[in-house]
Specification:
By secondary structure, the protein is an all-alpha fold. 75% of the residues lie in helices and 0% in strands. It has helices at residues 8-22, 29-36, 40-47, 50-72, 79-95, 104-109, 111-114, 117-143, 153-173, 177-192. Helix 1 (8-22) crosses helix 4 (50-72) and helix 3 crosses helix 4 (50-72).
Length: 193
Amino acid sequence: MRNAEFDKEKVLRSAMNAFMSKGFANTSMQDLKKATGLHPGSIYCAFENKRGLLLAALEQYRLDRKAEFERFFSASERTTDNLKAYLDNVVIECISCDNTQACLLTKTLNEAAEQDIEMQQVISNNLSMLQQAFAEKFEQAKQEGDISAEKESEHLARYFLMGLYGLRTFAQTHPEPTVLKQLAEQLYQDVLR
């Protein structure tokens, strides 16, 4: 049996878009055939199965994001200017509502909730309740004089919740306690400022 010839990077980027659009579980072999232009037999031959294709797509995603990061941080001599441009780009990607601009890593990590509407609603409701609870605590801390009265409690709650879940996501791949404690302390200090 001979190896199929194709542009691997192009195929992997096409697979990334398919997985980001529908998620792993909902992306069929027919979807992958349509996205990549490869027949299922070629996909199996080159990647073993759909999971193997996802793993290869994740690696290509990592390489693409690394190259993008390096481009952003070579644009200006000032690191803070580059950081701002990079963060602005991330925000644009997040709010674009374009599935191909989603984070494949986050998409893959969060797929379980996305595949179950009831689970998604439960998680959304729990996060909303937690955000409201934090807003109430921040309002209380403002009244006690520990947080500036000029700060908006709802905004602080959203920021803090974002930091919490960012920390939890980060912890999945970087569980070093010292690093996690430093990040948590930084989040705490940011809220107090």
